[in-house]
Design brief:
Number of helices: 2
Helix content: 25-40%
Structural class: mainly alpha
Order of helices and strands: HH
Number of domains: 1
Distance between the termini: 51 Å
Radius of gyration: 18 Å
Largest sheet: none
Strand content: under 5%
Length: 92
């Protein structure tokens, strides 16, 4: 069934480009988070491509579960580069 997500012309896993496999693997990881984490424990979408941020997030989730305390969400939001204070100097 997995071969249905392969590009045309791919007849075996060896033919699938590595970047397609990386995207499929990442999507499976996100699905695992959705299946195993509560909505409060789910990392924000901006964090998904950053392995270091995700590792820290999941360590915090684990610590909160072990201590029995409520998990405190990271309420930072993703901001476009052109809208942050460091990029403002590049505006004309």
């Amino acid at each position: 069934m997995g071969h249905l997500s392969w590009p045309k012309g791919c007849t075996s896993i060896e033919d699938v480009p590595w970047d397609v496999l990386a995207v499929i693997n990442h999507s499976h990881t996100i699905l695992q988070w959705q299946e195993n984490l509560s909505s409060d424990e789910m990392p924000p979408a901006w964090m998904w491509p950053f392995n270091d941020e995700i590792s820290e997030w999941l360590e915090d989730v684990t610590a909160a579960r072990k201590s029995g305390s409520d998990f405190e969400r990271d309420d930072r939001v993703q901001v476009h580069m052109t809208e942050n204070e460091h990029a403002s100097r590049f505006k004309k």
